[in-house]
Amino acid sequence: MRPREFVWRSGRSSVPFSELGCILAGRFAIPSSIEDSYLGQWDSFGDYLSEEIELMQDRWPEEAIRYFDNDAYERDARYDYAVLDALDGGVFVFRSC
After folding, report:
1. pLDDT at 35
2. What is the DSSP letter of 6?
3. Which of 55, 24, 38, 56 lies closest to 92 in space, CA to CA?
4. Is-contact 20 34, C-beta < 8 A?
């Protein structure tokens, strides 16, 4: 019996489920959790994180904000997310288990 093909659709893009399964293997407990883990499509992972960073820094002193390393934060945050390149540009972001 062949597995049923599922296409993940998000606005302008679609990704075959088989591709998601290969890329995200081990990051999700069960395939049905892919939909629950989907956070959206952004131009970049940094764009996704920008709101989170702004909220986190809301009450920080200016000196701390000036020295915050956005690139290092983005690099470390990738362990908590699965980020896939979208077919038409940008990225799909998924929350990891």
Report:
1. 77
2. -
3. 38
4. yes
The span from the CA of 83 to the CA of 77, in Å, is 11
- In the numeric block, which tokens belong to residue 34? 């892919």
Task: Name the one residue in this structure whose structure tokens are 């038409």.
Answer: 88
* 2-6 long-range contacts, CB within 8 A, separation 24+: none
Whole-angstrom CA distances from 14 to 7, 10, 73, 88 are 6, 6, 29, 9
pTM of the model: 0.63
Cβ burial of 95 (10 Å; 0-12, 13-18, 19+) is middle
Q: Mapping DSSP to helix (H, G, I), strand (E, B) and coil, where does residue 36 land?
A: helix
